[in-house]
Design brief:
The chain has 247 residues and is of the alpha+beta class. The protein folds into three domains: 3-76, Orthogonal Bundle (434 Repressor (Amino-terminal Domain)), CATH 1.10.260; 80-121; 126-243, Ribbon (Umud Fragment, subunit A), CATH 2.10.109. Helix content is 34%, strand content 26%. It contains eight helices and nine strands. Helix 1 (3-14) packs across helix 3 and helix 2 packs across helix 3 (30-38).
């Protein structure tokens, strides 16, 4: 049982709810809830808070969930055998180091263990920054790393862009939505991209008219488009996923 799984199970039982009832409330499958409670499922910190809030445990704050806590919520031996082996090897190496240093205390040993979990976890989870319209970080989201990539890109290069307005709502992106952006320095025909135009960062649909001309599209209350030369548009990345909060 993990810290997170124990929290969810304890609150569920306190309210007399079954895993199926909790799953229905949270909009996930029963097997998902049972895997989280058992500590065999990697779960994003935002989803963890959402589940706890949905079943009534509201005192948990964002600061309470760190990478250390997420590490403790999953049985790495089942979720990522290669990471589990790395953890074991690192623990053995650190144990030798600690044993050879007589001045080490129990507290120092606990810190070493925590760092081992964190280092191992970096290969399966990544804190991805959330950037605002002036490209300043305003938060983060925890995403799984698959085969060393996130959405096919270098994990250190991807980020979320917080939609600053409703200029793309005709394309199903509203103010406050989180858009996962992967690097793309050249325009991609038909893609929604994060672009810089006249010093402003915007989400726009891009269409290539020819080798040097782009049609930059937005859609708030009405569809709008402007024709720009390639050298007038700085392409930053392509939007590959959009996330939004359900009130």
């Amino acid at each position: 049982m993990s810290r997170l799984g124990d929290l969810i199970r304890t609150e569920r039982l306190r309210q007399g709810l079954t895993p199926k009832q909790v799953a229905r409330k949270c909009g996930v499958s029963e097997s998902y809830i049972m895997a989280v409670e058992a500590g065999t499922r990697i779960i994003q910190d935002e989803q963890a808070r959402r589940i706890l809030k949905t079943i009534g445990l509201r005192q948990q704050t964002e600061a309470d969930f760190t990478l250390d806590d997420i590490a403790a919520t999953v049985d790495l031996a089942q979720a990522a055998p290669s990471v589990a082996r790395a953890v074991t090897e690192r623990k053995k190496a650190e144990a030798v180091k600690v044993a050879s240093t007589e001045s080490d205390t129990d507290d120092q040993g606990a810190g070493v263990t925590g760092s081992v979990w964190l280092d191992a976890l970096q290969s399966v989870l990544k804190n991805v920054p959330v950037m605002n319209a002036v490209m300043k970080p305003v938060g983060h989201r925890l995403l799984p790393v698959e085969q060393g990539r996130i959405a096919g890109a270098n994990p250190d290069k991807v980020f979320y862009f917080l939609a600053p307005d409703d200029s793309m709502r005709g394309f199903r992106v509203h103010q406050g939505d989180l858009c996962l952006v992967v690097p793309a320095q050249s325009p991609i025909d038909g893609a929604m991209m994060l672009v810089e135009i006249d010093g402003h960062h915007n989400l726009r649909k891009v269409k290539k008219l020819d080798a040097t001309t782009l049609l930059i599209q937005s859609f708030n209350r009405e569809y709008e488009a402007q024709t720009l030369q390639l050298n007038q548009v700085n392409c930053i990345g392509r939007v590959v996923k959009v996330e939004f909060e359900v009130e």
